[in-house]
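Deliverable D4.2, example record:
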Amino acid sequence: MSDNLITRAGKALYGEQWQSELARSLGVDARTVRRWAVDEAAPRPGVYVDLLREATERLYDLEML
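Output generated by the structure prediction step:
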């Protein structure tokens, strides 16, 4: 598995079961996320913006605890 931004962000946000959770969050099939993770396909436009939004929301949730 590649150590690309999708992989690093997915693991940081969702832990070891990150692919299914990230797929659900982004509204794509888990196979699509797996293809991104091994650099078989490029994420659609806007995925990195969605990842940033998700990370920002997670950070906000953690700060509110």
